[in-house]
Automatic annotation (TrEMBL), chain B:
Keyword terms, alphabetized: Membrane, Transmembrane, Transmembrane helix
Protein name: Metal transporter
Membrane-spanning segments: 32-53, 163-184, 196-213, 233-253, 265-282, 288-311, 332-351, 357-376, 397-415
Protein origin, superkingdom: Archaea
Lineage: Archaea, Methanobacteriati, Methanobacteriota, Stenosarchaea group, Halobacteria
Originating species: Haloarcula rubra
């Protein structure tokens, strides 16, 4: 500590606080009630009564005196595991049990086919707090679709919800009938109706899909959204590297190879991809009391789902059953496919502690749009790829969270545990 | 004449000898019990067969009231909550200033679920800042939220003997001493002519009338914080009528005694006691407010305030003793008793308010005070009339107005 010691600091604080209280009590307009009540203000204690005011003591022996921050209790609903969701990629060849899928060739093109069903369900968004959700295949965020650039994504969609829904992909879509909006193609699908959407997987990058029924705010924030990852095709990158960089200069052979290598590391069909730990995160939020503001924010639905179970405020912590940090291997490169589905608020953000990363906005380039940053922001439906390297870091907890403090304290506060 | 007295009872009813005493040939008690038995049967059938089970018009909304908050230390916030809704609610999370925070629920049987009408305390370890508003939100299991802002928080004193002592001293100064001082006008009042005595009595009625309005408004104001299930406003109506009718019944019973020749019952002392009780109830409510604001940490006692209270309450003294100004002077012990009945409840109210504060109790006591005061005003008017005076004489009306006016002005001192 600098020049003043704790005791004198406490005294000063106390004096300042008392002065503040005094000035405030004077202003507080108290009703007759509170004063029969508020027993007024003026004068000193004529009858020898001391002030009942709190004397703020400043002995903080441990963090508990400040109270423990965070959501109380564990999640009891085990239908959704945010840790499994991180790495649950549905490619057609393999994926989640609740997403029927297959992959096959058709007209010389790889087709990845998925069955999507919109249902009304209830999800846990904080321990003990349930939210009435509309969900693709019963989960929020919806299943992550993963394809390779140029593939055909075929989604057999059936709406089993009470309201009419669609699926609108944020892809370069050449057929307006497949746009998944109320005004075109099949329009909205009423309860029991089905439609097969077909989209070409382009451009390479990380993309967003969501229901486009109206009212849009309701349909999105109830949970109808998810991620589509389009892996770059290294051969295509080799042929037309300019499409993958925001760079006008000459493309040297070295540079071309570097881009191809990056494309291979992004493409799940290449061995180079296995060396990278890839995670999908959708920043989302929930308005539980219909006031047009969110009570819960999270990465992947659950408030503090990637938090710690308990901490004594002195650096000792334990993982909870359902609230626990994301464990990562420090020798692996980390890649986060991040998108923002937050409703009502204009932006959301992602901030890493003690760490800087490369950010590829929309994931459509193979060179970073932001190099060496520790905070990025996204508007709704914006997405991007973060590449993070923890190889220099000591093992332990590294926080990441929205750097809107309000969002962080309402649930969007998470940890990597580097091991 | 004899015929008449035989046929009418004291309450003016007519004997029912000519009525059929055995309807349908059943004994009287059977006909009294029959509807009750049938009601129980119907309720039983309803409960077991639930014929309306299929009729569902939606779910009742959860309703939780945060009646008040206490801050026992600068590390702790305690919310006092009641479930008003017809269904159980579970308090799943708590937000402090829009951040999820640790908490525990005490007094709800070990879990976080409150049955209908159940109350509990929510204890939040939070290092709050004196004077900095604190917003606390309860998040129920279905995501419904209930919000409460603690304005300019300051520490609640909590229970201690010294607090009780403090409240006793306050009560002495704002309740007992001013009333006793006011009663010292007795010898002077005694020398007054009937006309002026009646004016003093009407002045007292004005004082009481002001207090009735004052307490009534406060009661309804407080009722807004009474948990909905207790129907705060109706509780006040019940309190007012309950007290009014109860005191009136006692008064009527006294008149019966007077008619029967009980001399003691006819004296002005009786009315003096009624006035003392009415003022005492008012002062009890005043004490409750003082005590509860202590409990809520909302008190900073100043000399000016105490002086205001003393001025305010000193007018209550002559109101108490005016009814005994005629006839024989009652024994001194009666004066002591009158003073204690009228003034000491401030102390009692202060203790109750600081130990077991709740808006429900507060509103109810205020309502009882209003009822008692209204009855006393009625009684005073009759007293003046019985003594041959005219209640609505110019002097009396102005005296009444003066009573209202003085109370209004002195009230300004305590309503800072």
């Amino acid at each position: 500590m600098p020049s003043i010691d704790y005791n004198s600091a406490a005294d000063i604080t106390k004096r300042l606080e008392e002065r503040l209280v005094e000035s405030l009590t004077g202003e507080t307009s108290v009703s007759r009630r509170t004063v029969l009540g508020g027993l007024g203000v003026a004068g000193s204690a004529a009858v020898g009564l001391g002030s009942s005011r709190a004397s703020a003591t400043s002995d903080h022996d441990n963090g508990d005196e400040h109270g423990n921050f965070g959501a109380v209790g564990e999640y009891r609903d085990l239908n959704f595991d945010p840790h499994e969701f991180l790495t649950a990629f549905n490619t057609g060849e393999s994926g989640q049990d609740n997403v029927p899928q297959q992959v096959y060739e058709e007209d010389g093109r790889t087709v990845r086919e998925f069955e999507f069903t919109a249902v009304d369900t209830t999800i846990a968004i904080a321990p003990g707090v349930e939210f009435s959700a509309w969900a693709y295949n019963g989960q929020v965020p919806g299943p992550t679709i993963r394809a390779v650039e140029g593939d055909l994504i075929r989604v057999k969609f059936t709406n089993l919800g009470r309201h009419a829904h669609t699926i609108h992909p944020h892809l370069k879509n050449l057929n307006p009938r497949m746009d998944g909006i109320p005004q075109n193609g099949p329009g909205v699908l009423d309860t029991g109706e089905s439609f097969t959407y077909e989209w070409i997987a382009q451009p390479a990058g990380t993309h967003f899909y969501h229901c486009h029924s109206l009212p849009l705010k309701e349909h999105i924030h109830r949970g109808l959204y998810g991620t589509i990852i389009v892996d770059p095709d290294p051969e295509r990158v080799r042929e037309s590297p300019r499409e993958y960089v925001n760079y006008p200069g000459p493309i040297t052979d070295d540079f071309r190879e570097q881009l191809v290598a990056e494309a291979k590391s992004r493409n799940h069909e290449y061995a180079e991809n296995d060396a990278v730990n890839e995670m999908v995160m959708v920043m989302n939020s929930f308005d539980t009391n219909f006031d047009g503001g969110n009570e819960v924010y999270a990465a992947n639905t659950r408030a503090f789902g990637y938090g710690v179970g308990a901490t004594d405020g002195n650096g000792n912590w334990t993982p909870g059953e359902t609230k626990r940090p994301i464990q990562i291997d420090k020798n692996e490169r980390q890649r986060v496919y991040l998108s923002n589905a937050t409703e009502f608020d204009l932006i959301n953000s992602f901030h890493t502690h003690s760490q800087f990363f490369d950010y590829y906005d929309h994931g459509t380039t193979l060179t970073p749009t932001n190099k060496t940053v520790d905070t990025i922001m996204q508007c709704q439906a914006q997405r991007g790829i973060l590449e993070i390297d923890y190889s220099d870091h000591e093992p332990g907890l590294y926080m990441f969270h929205a750097h809107q403090s309000e969002f962080a304290e309402l649930g969007w506060m998470s940890f990597f545990e580097v091991v | 004449m004899t015929d008449k007295t035989r046929n009418s009872t004291t309450d003016g009813g007519v004997p029912a000898e000519e009525e059929i005493t055995r309807p349908l040939g059943l004994p009287r008690w059977v006909s009294a019990l029959l509807p009750i038995v049938l009601l129980v049967l119907v309720l039983g059938v309803f409960a077991f067969t639930s014929p309306l089970a299929g009729v569902q018009s939606g779910e009742p909304l959860p309703d939780v009231t945060i009646t008040h908050t206490t801050l026992p230390s600068d590390e702790t916030v305690v919310l006092h909550v009641t479930n008003n809704g017809p269904e159980s609610v579970t308090i799943s999370q708590v937000l402090v200033d829009e951040a999820y925070w640790d908490f525990r629920v005490e007094g709800a049987g070990g879990d976080q679920t409150l049955a209908p009408m159940e109350s509990a305390q929510i204890v939040i370890p939070y290092h709050w800042n004196p004077g900095w508003d604190l917003d606390v939100t309860l998040v129920l299991s279905d995501g419904a939220t209930f919000d409460n802002t603690i304005v300019a928080p300051s520490q609640s004193p909590g229970f201690s003997l010294s607090l009780l002592g403090t409240l006793a001293v306050i009560g002495l100064f704002v309740g007992v001493i001013p009333v006793a001082l006011g009663m010292l006008w007795f010898p002077y009042i005694k020398t007054m002519s009937d006309r002026w005595l009646h004016a003093v009595l009407l002045f007292a009625a004005g004082v009481l009338g002001f207090l009735a309005f004052d307490a009534g408004f406060e009661a309804f104001e407080l009722a807004e914080r009474v948990p909905g299930a207790y129907e705060g406003n109706l509780l006040i109506v019940f309190g007012i009528f309950g007290a009014l009718l109860l005191v009136q019944a006692i008064s009527a019973w006294r008149e019966g005694r007077v008619a029967a020749g009980d001399k003691q019952a006819s004296s002005g002392l009786w009315i003096a006691y009624l006035v003392a009780v009415g003022i005492g109830l008012h002062n009890l409510a005043e004490g409750l407010a003082i005590g509860s604001s202590f409990a809520l940490g909302r008190v900073s006692l100043g000399a000016f305030l105490v002086i205001g209270f003393m001025l305010h309450n000193v007018t209550e003294g002559p109101a108490v003793v005016a009814p005994v100004a005629r006839g024989e002077r009652p024994a001194l012990k009666h004066f002591a008793a009158l003073g204690v009945i009228a003034g000491a409840p401030v102390i009692l109210g202060g203790w109750i308010g600081s130990l077991a504060y709740s808006p429900t109790i507060g509103a109810f006591f205020l309502a009882i005070g209003v009822g008692a005061i209204l009855q006393v005003d009625w009684e005073i008017a009759r007293m003046v009339r019985d003594a041959g005076g005219r209640v609505a004489s110019a002097t009396n009306l102005l005296a009444f107005l003066l009573g209202l006016g003085i109370m209004y002005v002195t009230d300004l001192f305590v309503a800072l």
